[in-house]
């Protein structure tokens, strides 16, 4: 029987490994097809460790959104503080797009799933609103 090629396991804390594994899986398939077992296997963790960190897939996604927000806000240029609001907003939007670029496939997958699932779309909307406050 042929062996599956071993997938690269993410580095970092358990939490970071789970988020990274989830985003990698999301780039490959729809959120409806992802289980905590899949995430645990990809992250190289036990199911118990995954469940101890996150209660749901949406909680994993919310943690990713929060991390993206943190990276965007931390990457700000202090010299832009004196610029007009339009320039500051443009700067923040460009930083967000740059930060999200590595996750394009996962975001596309999520958007396709949201079109078929109004509850998912509603949850994503709530995360987006929270992110923009």
Question: What do these coordinates show?
Answer:
The chain is an all-alpha fold. The chain has one domain (14-131): Orthogonal Bundle (Tetracycline Repressor, domain 2), CATH 1.10.357. Helix content is 68%, strand content 0%. The protein contains seven helices and no strands. It has helices spanning 14-28, 36-43, 47-53, 57-74, 85-100, 104-116, 118-131. α4 (57-74) packs across α5 (85-100). The longest helix has 18 residues, at 57-74. The protein is globular.
Q: List low-confidence stretches.
A: 1-6
Helix percentage range: 55-70%
Coarse morphology: globular
Number of domains: 1
CATH topology: Tetracycline Repressor, domain 2
Give the end-to-end Cα distance, rounded to a whole number of Å. Answer: 53 Å
Query: How many β strands by DSSP?
Result: 0
Rounded to an integer, what's the Rg over CA atoms?
A: 17 Å
CATH superfamily: Tetracycline Repressor, domain 2
Order of helices and strands: HHHHHHH
- Overall pLDDT confidence: 91
- CATH 2nd-level architecture: Orthogonal Bundle
* Structural class determined from secondary elements: mainly alpha
The main β sheet shows up as: none
């Amino acid at each position: 029987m042929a062996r599956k090629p071993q997938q690269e396991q993410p580095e970092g804390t358990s939490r970071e490994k789970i988020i990274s594994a989830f985003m990698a899986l999301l780039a490959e398939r729809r959120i409806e097809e992802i289980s905590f077992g899949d995430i645990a296997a990809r992250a190289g963790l036990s199911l118990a460790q995954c469940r101890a960190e996150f209660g749901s897939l949406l909680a994993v996604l919310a943690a990713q959104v929060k991390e993206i927000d943190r990276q965007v806000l931390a990457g700000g240029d202090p010299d832009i503080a004196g610029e007009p609001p339009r320039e500051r907003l443009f700067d923040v939007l460009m930083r967000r797009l740059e930060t999200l670029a590595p996750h394009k496939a996962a975001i596309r997958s999520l958007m396709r799933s949201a079109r078929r699932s109004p509850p998912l779309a509603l949850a994503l909307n709530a995360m987006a609103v929270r992110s923009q406050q």
